[in-house]
Amino acid sequence: MVILMRIFTLFCLLGLSCAVTAQNLTFQDVSRFKGVRANDVVGYGIVTGLAGTGDSPRTVATVESLKNALQRFGVVVSAEDVRSRNVAAVMLTAKLREYSQEGDQIDVTVSSIGDARSLVGGTLLLTELQGPDGRLYALAQGPLLVGGYYHEVAGNSVQKNHPTTATIPGGAVVEVDMVSDVFGDDSTVTYILDAPDIKTSVKMANLINQNFSDVSAIAQNAANVTVDFSGVVSTQRLQRVMEISDLPVDPFTSPTVVVNERTGTVVYGGDVSISKISITHGSLKVVIDSQVSAYSPDVAIGNQSPGLRVTNSDIDTQEEPAASGELVGTSSVSDLVSILNRMNATSGDVISILQAIKRAGALHADLVVQ
To answer: What whole-number distance in Å separates Cα of residue 247 and Cα of residue 211?
Structure first.
C-alpha cells in the first residue's frame, strides 16, 4: 500500500493525470469577508543586464530613464550618449494581500513597454509601487524569472512563450500596513461567495442559524450572506467568526475551463461537456460519438433527456485538407483535448478550438482566458 501511494504521489508531481475530489470545504474556503480584500499596485522602472535584447535608442522613455538613473549616482550623460541595448523600460504590477504588514514580501509581474526582444537575464532596479491614490505602498527590486526565451543569430530567430514578461517571486517589500476590519462600523459581517449561487447562500445562512443561537444570518442575494453579531459580547465576536468560518458546506460549483494564451496552459475538469457541433480547424478532423451506458435519474446532459449519463465515447480522427470535425451527441472537453494531444496538436490549437466552441454556445462551462 505504501508503495502504491508513493507511485500515485510521483505521478501527480510529474504533472500526469490524477483526479482529486474536494472534500470537507468550509465557509472560509468558498467565501470572503466584505471589506477585506487585496489591493493592486503599479510602478514604472528599468531592467538592466540584458544581453543586447533590450530597448533600442528609438525608445525615448528608456533613454531618459537611464540618463536620470545615472544622474542620481553622480554620472552626467546626455541622451545622445545612451546607446545601450542592455536596458529595457518596464511596467510593474503586484497585489497587496489582505492584512499585508510592513516588511512582507509580495510577487511582482514585470512587462516590457518598449521594443525589447527579451527580458531574460535582467535585473530590476529599485522601483516604487503605488496605489490608485498615488501613495507609495511597496518597493520592488531583484532578478527576473522569465518563462521563455528569444535567440537571434544571423537574422534567424527562435522564441518560446513571451520573453518580454517576467516575474520576481517575493520581489517587493511592503512599506505600509494594510489594516482591515471584518466588522466595519457596525456589528454585522458579510460573507461574499467566491462563486455566487442562491442555493449556496441560503444553505450557508441556514447552517449559521441552526448552529448558533446568539447570531442571526440572512442570505441577501446569491453572493452575500449577512450575519448580525449584536447578541455576542464584543470580545467574543472574532471567536464566533472563526467558528462560523469553520462550518462545513457543500457549495454548488459551475464547471470552468481556464486557458492561458501566453504560456499555452489549459486547465479543465473532466466533467465539462460539449454539445453537438461542427468544427473546422486547418487540416484537423475530429469526430466524437458519445455512448449512453448508465442510468441516473437526476442527470440531464446536453439535449439528452434526464436520466441519461454519458460514460464512454468513440473517437475517430483524420487529417485531410480543409476538413471539418463534428462532435456527435454530448462529449467532454477531456475527450477532445486528449485526442488533440495524441495528434500532437499545439496548445494554441487547443485554446483556439475551445474559444470557438464557447462562442458557438456548445461549451457548457465558464471559459476563463488569462
So the answer is: 9
For 311-358, what is each residue's pLDDT tens digit? 455 545 555 443 344 544 457 777 777 767 776 777 777 788 888 878
Residue in 363, 323, 365 with CA at minimum distance from that of residue 343: 323
What values do phi and psi take at 26, rounded to 5? -120, 175
Provide the 3-class DSSP secondary structure of residue 13: helix
3-state SS class at 54: coil
List the grid coordinates of 327.
462532435
Residue 341 to residue 351: CA distance in whole angstroms: 12
Give the pairing of strands 188-193 and 216-219.
unpaired
Q: Are 96 and 174 in contact (CB under 8 A)?
A: yes
Which H or E run contains 76?
Answer: none
Pairing of strands 188-193, 156-160: unpaired
The cell 441560503 sits on which residue?
202
CA distances to 125, 148, 191, 228, 245 from 28, rounded to whole Å, are 38, 36, 9, 18, 5
| Burial track 55-85 (b if 16+ CB lie within 10 A, e otherwise) | beeebeebbebbbebeeeeeeeeeeeebeeb
- Please say whether the beta carbons of 281 and 352 come within 8 A: yes
Taking only the tens place, the pLDDT of each residue in 226-257 is 999 988 888 888 899 899 989 998 887 677 78
Q: In this structure, are residues 276 and 362 in contact, taking their beta carbons and an 8 Å threshold? A: yes
Q: Where are the domains of the chain?
A: 27-35+182-245, 39-174, 256-298+305-369
Single-letter amino acid, residue 123: T
Flag residues of the chain having pLDDT under 50: 1-22, 290-308, 310-311, 315, 320-325, 327-329
**pTM given for the model:** 0.56
Count of residues making up the chain = 370
Rounded Cα–Cα distance for residues 214 and 237 (Å): 10
